[in-house]
Every structure is written in structure tokens, then in C-alpha cells.
Amino acid sequence: MYVMFVLIGFSLLVALIFLGVFIWAVRSGQFEDHYTPSVRALFDDEKKMKSENENTSKPDTQEQRSTD
């Protein structure tokens, strides 16, 4: 029975530590980025298009690589 009290106390201590870290993060401005989420989808499309274009321009076989 004593072990149960120790485990409950330890879990409450860990929960309070996580709560304290969360409150600190909110107060220090960790979650105040309002601009990036609204434009993230626009920038992701450009990266995908660039990577697809790079992949299609590369040769597929060893013979094609040696002739370049």
C-alpha cells in the first residue's frame, strides 16, 4: 500500500513539472506565431514542385549518366 502513495506522489510531481513547463512556454511566447501557419501550405507546394523537377531531370541508367 505504501508503494501506491509513492507512485501517486511521483506522478503528481511529474504532472506539476509538465504544467510548469507549459505555462513557462506560453508566457515566453513559444506559441505566438500567427503568420507561418497561414502561409505554410503555399510554401510547401513550391518545395514539392522543385524536388519533382529535379527528380525528372536526372538520368535513370548508367549509360545515360556516362554520355552526359
In short:
The chain contains 3 helices and no strands. The protein has 68 residues and is mostly helical.
Description of the molecule:
This protein is mainly α. Helices cover 79% and strands 0% of the residues. The protein has one domain. The chain contains three helices and no strands. The longest helix has 26 residues. The protein starts with a helix and ends with a helix. The mean pLDDT is 78.
Multimerization status: single chain
Mean pLDDT: 78
Count of individual domains: 1
What portion of residues belong to β-strands? Answer: under 5%
Distance between the termini: 76 Å
- Low-confidence segments, ≥5 residues, pLDDT <50? none
Number of separate strands:
0
Number of helices: 3
**Rg estimate, integer Å:** 26 Å
Described by the principal axes of the CA atoms, the overall outline is elongated
| Helix and strand run | HHH
Computed structural class: mainly alpha
What proportion of the residues is helical, as a percent range? over 70%
